[in-house]
Every structure is written in structure tokens, then in C-alpha cells.
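Supplementary notes (optional reading)

For those who missed the lab, this is the record we used. Protein: D-alanyl-D-alanine carboxypeptidase. Length: 290 residues.
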Amino acid sequence: MSRKKWIMKSGIIASILLLGACTESDLEHEDETTQTELKQTEKKDTNQNTSTNENSDEKNKSTSEDNEEANNSNGTAEDEETHEIDQESLEVDVENPSSLAVLANKKYSLPEDYTPENLKTVDVPTVLPNPEIKQMRKVAAEALKNMFDAAEKEDIILYARSGYRSYDTQVQLFKNYAANHGEEAANKYSARPGESEHQTGLVMDVTSESVNLQITSDFGETKEGKWVKENAHNYGFIIRYPEGKSDITGYVYEPWHLRFLGKELANQVFDSDLTYEEYLIEKGVDIEIQ
Ligand SMILES: [Zn+2]
């Protein structure tokens, strides 16, 4: 892979952002680190797959991502700075794990030793007990809080299900999936370590009581899912895996998987009506598609 770097001039902003792509795959719907949780996850996956099949072929051929958990927390301020696109200048590198624009997918793997700085436990309602997955990079965690608060004012109650997942957690998730479903299925439905966007600390899978706090494509049809689709970009998030785009993103429709890009970039991607990969390509970023 070639490294791409772009320099963004401040102020101007916005418009030109670049970034890296990330796709993810995470072990399919699993989540957690514990066995119990894993079992629950499998159920979810099954449900999801089933519904997916009903809804589209896309899902059949793509991986879905999402799983959950992680723990750490350090942090402090780097993310915030990066978040401000109108800074003097911002160098964006799709292969720089610390960049809000980092690309993490089957073509662009995150380093095994990469752990985001400034991980923070999110201050919003969560679903699972694993402390690791309740974390996000500070700037993303704060944006998530703002989004959840805004949603609540409109009687939209959201829950955070799975955020940061460490490389090691992904290793375990993949192994467990392979053990239960076979290597082939694991390759198809589970993200390999380093290939999950959740390792960036910039992702949160959200859900609602209307879908029993699960991660399912049905979420996209709920009032909560529709609110997220219409408003997430205003808080810096995009729905990373839109419906009908699995051939580009590599993942099935995941209305619950929100990737933080910062407000400016998220708005740009939203307005383009393109997937993140397509947006990057349109901006001249030389990235490889799955
Ligand atoms: Zn996810």
C-alpha cells in the first residue's frame, strides 16, 4: 500500500478533506470477550444474518462488523486537536492510525500494536458489561454524548453497544468465530485482527429498545435508526456501511455502525451521498478497494 498524505489548510477547510478509509469487519456480530457474551453474539449474528437474507443479497456476500468491548483509557488531547479541521494545517494519512481519517479494512490493516490514545468510557447508556467496548477516543466519545443528548430531546433514546475493540480482542473474536463456524465462515463474516474499524476507537455500534438492544438491520427502519441516519453527520459520524454498497465497502448494511470522522468530514461525506471509499476516490485519494 502506498502512503497517502494530504495537507489540509485550515480555514478552508472543509472542503477538502481527505482521508483514509476504513472498513471494518469485525467479527461479525459478536461482541464481547467473554464466552457468555460470545454466545449471545452468535445469536445476534444468526438473527442478523437471517434478517439480512430476507432483506438483501448484499448481506449474504458481505461481512458485517460489529462486536464489542474493550478497556483502557488514557488520554487527553490529541484527538481534539485533530478533530478541529480548521487548524493551521492537518496532515491526513490513510495509513496513520491516529488520524480521524484512518482507513481500516481488508486492504488497510491497523498495526497489531496500535492502541488509540485518549480512550475514554462513553457517558451514555450502554448495553454490554465489557468495559473495553464502552470506550472510544475522547473526541469521539464526547461527540457521541452530544448526539445522544440531542436525540433524547426528540424522544429518541439510543444505546451504545460496542465501541473500541483491541487487536487482542479481535484475535479472540475471530478465533471463536472460526471455532464455532469454521475458518471459511470466519473469513467471510468476521473481521481479522487489524481489519476492524473498531480498533480505531472511532466507532460505536448503536441500538435501541425497539430492536431489543441488538445489532440488526431492522434498526435502520426504526425511528431511532432513521434519526441516526438523518442526524449523525451533524455530530461527526457517518453510517459507514450503507445499504447496497457492500461491493465497495466490503460489508453488509450496518445501520448501527457509526464511524466518527469529525463534523467537517462527516458532513462532506454525508452531502456527497457516497460511501467513505467513494468519497475519498472522488477527492483524488488513491486508495485500493477490497
Ligand atoms: Zn460496528
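If you only remember one thing from this example: The pocket of zinc ion is lined by residues 26, 65-66, 198, 203, 205, 257 (CB under 6 Å).
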